[in-house]
């Protein structure tokens, strides 16, 4: 009788040990996964953010060049892309400079130009070749890198009036985290968005602003 009792106790003890080992393994996995998940998320987020930021910088270059030529920004992708493809930028070609002897004669640069002593000639150069290079695909400006199906940045432009009554052209290009981080850990994306909203920040990446003149800054800068 004692032998059977001992055997039963031994089996129960073994079963308990197996359960405890299983629980320890499960806890270890959960702890490991809880650490691994955010690390992998941050790595993937960083890689995607870097590509999107580079594209936003390209958009900013195009918008600033457009404003130099037209005096305002554009909120139209068709207009901006066509400008990059076919637009031209003025470039002043300078030959000669105002010398001390010219200044002694009372000449200004304008006088020297009229007399032909120095030359200031305006030529026009391709927007695409100047800003991006001949192989650049302007159509990609509107595309959020790495998205499948392909997503586009939201683009807008307007003119605001400052408190001093000055009208200032502004633009904004942006993309939400839900688009940039699509396919990554959903809960961690939600947490990231909630943190941004709590801090009254845009939950994604953007350059410029449609509510204030922020010197065309990106929210990653």
Automatic annotation (TrEMBL):
It comes from the Bacteria. Keywords: Membrane, Transmembrane, Transmembrane helix. The chain crosses the membrane at residues 12-32. This is Uncharacterized protein. It comes from Mangrovibacterium marinum.
């Amino acid at each position: 009788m004692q032998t059977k009792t001992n055997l039963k106790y031994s089996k129960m003890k073994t079963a308990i040990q197996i359960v405890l080992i299983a629980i320890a393994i499960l806890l270890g996995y959960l702890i490991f996964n809880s650490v691994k998940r955010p690390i992998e998320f941050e790595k993937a987020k960083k890689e995607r953010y870097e590509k999107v930021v580079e594209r936003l910088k390209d958009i900013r270059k195009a918008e600033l060049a457009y404003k130099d030529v037209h005096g305002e920004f554009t909120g139209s992708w068709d207009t901006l892309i066509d400008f990059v493809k076919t637009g031209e930028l003025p470039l002043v070609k300078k030959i000669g400079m105002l010398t001390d002897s010219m200044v002694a004669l009372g000449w200004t640069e304008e006088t020297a130009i009229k007399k032909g002593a120095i030359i200031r000639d305006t030529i026009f150069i391709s927007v695409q070749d100047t800003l991006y290079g001949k192989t650049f695909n302007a159509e990609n400006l509107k595309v959020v890198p790495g998205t499948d199906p392909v997503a586009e940045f939201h683009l807008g432009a307007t003119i605001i009036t400052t408190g001093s009554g000055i009208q200032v052209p502004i633009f904004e290009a942006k993309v939400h985290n839900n688009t940039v981080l699509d396919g990554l850990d959903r809960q961690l994306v939600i947490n990231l968005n909630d943190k941004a909203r709590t801090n009254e920040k845009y939950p994604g990446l953007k350059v410029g602003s449609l509510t204030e003149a922020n010197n065309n800054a990106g929210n990653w800068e």
